[in-house]
Amino acid sequence: MGQNRSVAVVGAGQTGVSAAVGFLNAGFDVTLFSDRDRVTLRNRGPATGTAVTFAEAQAAERELGLDDYVGRAPRVTGQSTRMFTGAGTERQDVLDFDVDYDGFQAVGVDTRLKVDERIGEFLVGGGRFVVTVVDADVLDDIASAHDLTLVATGRAGLSELFAVDRSRTVYDRPQRRLLMLTVTGLGHGTDVFAHRGLAGGEHNTFAIDTEQGELWWGPYLHKDAGPSWSFLGFAKPGSDWERRFGTAHDVASAHRVVTEVHRDYVEWDLPEIASTTLIPGDPHAWLRGSVTPTVRHAVGVTASGHPVLALGDTAISYDPIGAQGAQGGLIQAAQLVAAARGHAGPFDQNWLHDRFEHFWTTRGAAAVLVTRLFLGDPDFVQYGQLFFPAAAASPRFGAALFGLLSDPKPLLGIGSRAAARHYVAEKAGESADTLLARVPAANFRYSSYRRQESARTSVA
Ligand SMILES: Cc1cc2nc3c(=O)[nH]c(=O)nc-3n(C[C@H](O)[C@H](O)[C@H](O)COP(=O)(O)OP(=O)(O)OC[C@H]3O[C@@H](n4cnc5c(N)ncnc54)[C@H](O)[C@@H]3O)c2cc1C
Question: Gene3D superfamilies annotated for this entry (predicted)?
C-alpha cells in the first residue's frame, strides 16, 4: 500500500528515526530531515533522556521492524523501592519493597545509539537523510512536496506550530528539577544492590524522599561503554536536592553532586554509588533541566494550508518520572504506520486528527495519568497512599503497579478511591483491607557491597 506515497519526517530523535524506518519498511518513500548530522547526533551532545522501554513500547518497536534491544541491553526484571522521610538521625523509613515485573523486561538504551543504528538501517533501506534546519517556511515546502509530513522535533523545535491543548494539559510549570547521569564501574550481578533484594543489579532502584523527591538508578546500555548504569534525580521545587542539582555544570560535578546526595540522604546505597566512575570519552553523559508536562493539538497547518502531524515529545511531553515520553513516541509511530499502510485516501486533516485522537484514547491520556500518579499529584495522592503500601504487602500488586509503566490504561478506569481499592483487590487476589493490615514495617538494610566482588555483568 505504501508504494509511491511519500512521507517526510522532520527531526531525527528516537521518535523520528523510528517512524522513518517504520514507514520505509511499510513501503513508503521516506525522507528524514535533521538539524544535526549523524556524527553530531551520536557524539556531540547528550542523550535526550534515559528512555527506558517496557513491554508495550518494545512491541511497538518490533511492529516497526526495529530491534527492541532486549537481549542486548543489561536486563531489568523488576524494581526495588524505598520510601522515607527526613535525613540522618531524623530519618523515618516508610516503605521497602522489591518486585519482579510480570512477564517482561525493561531496557534502558542510550537514545544516541538507537538513533545512530536506526539512521544506518534507514540509509541501507533506501531512505533519504537530509541535514538542514527546518523552520516554518521550509516545513511548508516539505509538506507541499510530500503526501504525509510528520514533525518530531522534540519539545522545542517547531512546537509553536502546535498550540497547547489547555483541556488536556494539567501543569503550567515543571514539577521536578531533573539531573541525569550515566556511569560505569558497577556491574549488574546479584551482589550489586544485594541489600535491596535477591535480584540485585537486575532491578531498577527507587529512593523516594517524601520531602526532597526521587532518586532512580537503572541498568543501561551506553553507546560506547556498553552495559552501564543510568541515574535520574527528580528534585521537588524548593528542596535541598533542587539546590544541589543546580550546582552541576559538567559531568564530573554532576557525579560529585549525585555521590554527595547519596552520602547525605541515601547512605544505604552509598557503596554502590561510590564505586561508579565516569565514562571515558563521553563528556555529554549527563543532563540537567526540567519539563513542563504539556499536551498539544497535534495537527498543525503550514502557511499554505498543508496539514502536518506532531509526533513524540512535540505532541506530548511528560515529566520523566513515569517513563512515558520515549515509549509514547514509539507507540504513536507504530500506530501511525499501521494505519497509513491500510489507508488508500489522502492523509488530510481529518485523517491526522483521527490518528491522534486514537493515540490519545489508547495511550496518551493514560500515560499522563500514570505520570501524575508517580509525581504524587494531589488529585492522585489518595491512590498513591493506597497503591504503594499495597505493593509493599503484595508482590502481585507490586508487579501490577509497575506494570502501569508499560501499560497505563487500567488507570483510565479508576476514578474513585473505591475503584482504586477494587483494582488493588483484583490484582492482588485479596481485599485491600487484608493487604493494608499486613504492610511490613520498613527497616532499611545497608549495603555491604565491595567493588572487586562485582566482576559479573549479566546480559540476557
Ligand atoms: C531525564 C529524562 C529521562 C527520561 N527517561 C525516560 C524513560 O525512562 N522512558 C521514556 O519512555 N522516556 C523517558 N524520557 C523521555 C524521552 O527521553 C523523550 O520522550 C524522547 O527521547 C523524545 O524523543 P523525540 O524523538 O520525540 O524528541 P528528541 O529526542 O528531542 O528529538 C528531536 C530531534 O529533532 C531535532 N530538531 C529539533 N528542531 C529541529 C528543526 N527545526 N529541524 C530539524 N531537526 C530538528 C533535534 O535536534 C532532535 O534530534 C526521559 C526524558 C528525560 C529528560
Answer: FAD/NAD(P)-binding domain (3.50.50.60)
Give the pLDDT score at 88.
87
C-alpha 9 to ligand 1 mean position (Å) = 14
3-state secondary structure the chain: CCCCCEEEEECCCHHHHHHHHHHHHCCCEEEEEECCCHHHHHHCCCCCCCCEECHHHHHHHHHCCCCCCECCEECECEEEEEEEECCHHHCEEEEEEEEECCCCCEEEECHHHHHHHHHHHHHHCCCEEEECCCCHHHHHHHHHHCCEEEECCCCCCCHHHCCECCCCCCCCCCCCEEEEEEEECCCCCCCCCCCCCCCHHHEEEEEEECCCEEEEEEEEEECCCEEEEEEEEEECCCCHHHHHHCCCCCHHHHHHHHHHHHHHHCHHHHHHHHHCECCCCCCCCEEEECCCCEEECCEEECCCCCEEEECHHHCEECCHHHCCHHHHHHHHHHHHHHHHHCCCCCCCHHHHHHHHHHHHHHHHHHHHHHHHHHHCCHHHHHHHHHHHHHHHHCHHHHHHHHHCCCCCHHHHHCCCHHHHHHHHHHHHCCCHHHHHCCCCCCCCCCCCCCHHHCCCCCEC
Segment 305-362, tens digit of pLDDT: 999 999 999 999 999 999 999 999 999 999 999 999 999 999 999 999 999 999 999 9
Share of the chain above pLDDT 70, in %: 97
Q: What is the pLDDT of residue 381?
A: 87
pLDDT higher than threshold 90 for residue 457: no
The pLDDT of 295-312, averaged and rounded, is 98
Q: For ligand 1, atom 13, which residue shows the shortest CA distance?
A: 51
Residue 454: predicted pLDDT: 44
Cα–ligand 1 centroid distance for 268 (angstroms): 33
Ligand 1 pocket, Cβ-based, cut-off 6 angstroms: 10-16, 33-36, 48-52, 111, 133-134, 152-154, 157-158, 178, 180, 232, 287, 312-313, 320, 323-327, 329
**pLDDT band, residue 426 (cuts 50/70/90):** very high
> Which class in CATH covers the domain with range 71-104+175-290+376-460?
alpha beta
Which listed CATH number (1.10.405.10, 3.50.50.60, 3.40.1190.20, 3.40.50.720) goes with 6-48+110-171+292-372? 3.50.50.60
What pLDDT is stored for residue 458 in this prediction? 39
Residue 54 CA to ligand 1 centre (angstroms)? 17
